[in-house]
Amino acid sequence: MKIKYKIGLVLSGGGARGFAHLGVIQALNESGIFPGVISGTSAGAIVGALYADGYKPKEILKLMNSKSSLDYFSLTVPKGGFLKISGVIRTLSANLRAKSFNELKIPLYVTATDLNNGKAVYFSSGNLLQAIIASSSIPVLFRPFTIDNIQYVDGGVLDNLPIRPIEKSCGFIIGSFVNPSGYEEKVTSVMQIAVRTFILSMSKEVDEKSSKFDLLIAPQELCNFKILDPEKAGDLFEIGYRCTMEKLRRIDIKSIIS
């Protein structure tokens, strides 16, 4: 594939930990680094879509910041999932200016898992909001989202660090991985087991794909934060920002830009 973009950015899933992506992008932008294409899963798809839509990182932080997870998720009688993702849908519906992928200012790939055929799907055209919802539907927690009679769940099930759509078309690829696993003392409830299992299944992505990235930001400190805890958005932003700045101090930024 021909090199089409100077810089590509890959954003992993990770629930509320995705606020760290915003700190990563803020640090990159302040250093003069701007992606020409973005590929994201779940939380990375949400951040990627809003950024590709023209919002700046701090504007997205303000837009998505919440004092309660209830602003994003509501409990429901289990029928495919314990929670409804209605709050996220409302926020995106009200603020996304682009309704389709081709209206975005930066090309975007959104990864979701096709539950019926058992494969990762990379959306890059069509209805933007539907693709994001499909990409963000964590299995067990949220019910699958249906598009054209196909059921989709979180893209992180099969590809949580989706470099594949852009790896051969970029001169330099930056990855932001916000889903490290760490020690968990107690895992008792069905929901805790579901979340923990999902985190562990996604955490292997760094080891398997790290060599494919020219620059990979993966703050281990994020393991201290829950994936359904948007109340810590500011702290998560700062962790992403600080970790990226530390990484950038060790490399030649001019070589990335040129």
What does this structure look like?
This protein is α/β, with parallel strands linked by helices and 258 residues long. It is built from 9 helices and 11 strands. The protein has helices at 19-30, 43-52, 57-64, 86-95, 128-135, 190-203, 205-209, 233-248, 253-257, and strands spanning 5-11, 37-41, 74-75, 81-84, 108-114, 119-123, 140-142, 145-147, 150-154, 170-176, 215-217. The strands form 2 sheets. Strands 1, 2, 5, 6, 8, 9, 10 and 11 form an 8-stranded mixed beta sheet that branches. A 3-stranded mixed beta sheet has the order 3-4-7. A hairpin with a 4-residue loop joins strand 5 and strand 6 (119-123). The two termini are 20 Å apart. Residues 67-84 have low confidence and may be disordered.
What's the quick description here?
The protein is of the alpha/beta class and about 260 residues long. About 35% of the residues lie in helices and about 20% in strands. The strands form two sheets. Strands 1, 2, 5, 6, 8, 9, 10 and 11 form an eight-stranded mixed β-sheet that branches. A three-stranded mixed β-sheet has the order 3-4-7.
N/C terminus separation: 20 Å
The helix/strand class is: alpha/beta
| SSE string | EHEHHEEHEEHEEEEHHEHH
The Rg value, from CA coordinates, equals 17 Å
* 3D shape: globular
Number of strands: 11
What about the largest sheet?
A: 8 strands, mixed
Number of helices: 9
β-sheet strand percentage: 15-25%
Oligomer state equals: single chain
Mean pLDDT: 85
Uncertain segments of ≥5 residues (pLDDT<50)?
Answer: 67-84
The helix fraction, in percent, is 25-40%
